[in-house]
Specification:
With 111 residues, this protein is mainly beta. The protein is built from 1 helix and 13 strands; from the N terminus they run E-E-E-H-E-E-E-E-E-E-E-E-E-E. Helix content is 5%, strand content 32%. InterPro entries: YjdM, YjdM_C, YjdM_N.
Length: 111
């Protein structure tokens, strides 16, 4: 393997390949996005109270949010476990009430 080959974050193996979207480990089968794991380490995202957020944190919605293009409303107090920080207008990628959504950090507080 070359020096640019990423190491699996789960089993530390260098035996992996890029499938077009994710990098896949041949030993343990773990899939990850190399671009997002390196770029999210540098993100400085803060919740509505100014507390820094990190990948894997749990957050709680501070107000009711209507989902654009849907009649669904996410209620104040709903919890999102194990968030993932991403670049862009909506900084948080998570699941709330079983739906995968992206949220702005100003609408959540750290749990």
């Amino acid at each position: 393997m070359s020096e640019s080959t990423p190491i699996c974050p789960q089993c530390a193996s260098e035996q992996n390949y890029f499938d077009g979207t994710f990098t896949v480990c041949l030993e343990c089968g773990h899939e990850w996005d190399v671009a997002s794991t390196t770029s999210t380490q540098e993100l400085d995202v803060k919740d509505s109270n100014g507390n820094p957020l990190a990948n894997g944190d749990d957050v709680i919605l501070i107000k009711d949010l209507k989902l654009k293009g849907s009649s669904t409303v996410l209620k104040k107090g709903a919890k999102a476990k194990g968030i993932r920080l991403v670049e862009g207008d909506h900084e948080i990628d998570c699941k709330v009430d079983g739906m995968k959504i992206m949220l702005k950090a100003c609408f959540v507080k750290k749990a």
